[in-house]
Design goal:
Helix content: 55-70%
Structural class: mainly alpha
Number of strands: 0
Number of helices: 2
Oligomer: single chain
Shape: elongated
Radius of gyration: 20 Å
Strand content: under 5%
Distance between the termini: 44 Å
Largest sheet: none
Length: about 70
């Protein structure tokens, strides 16, 4: 994932945190639960993106090897 995507995820998290504070002030408990769940998914997505950017990291594509002929 590119740095632009990571910065977008950061932006979304900031917006959600601000929204959470607003709905908390209003006492909208159902909204808080939904925002918390969205924040959880967003943070997991960021972790996945950061792991995929680690240099030297290999990815197993699951391609089978050909059997040896004797």
């Amino acid at each position: 994932m590119n740095p632009k995507m990571l910065s977008r995820l950061d932006e979304l998290e900031e917006d959600l945190e601000a929204r959470r504070k607003q709905v908390e002030t209003e006492g909208w408990l159902g909204e808080i639960e939904g925002i918390d769940l969205t924040l959880q998914f967003l943070r997991e997505k960021r972790k996945q993106a950061q792991r995929s950017e680690q240099p030297g990291r290999s990815v197993d594509l699951g391609i089978p090897s050909l059997p040896h002929r004797y």
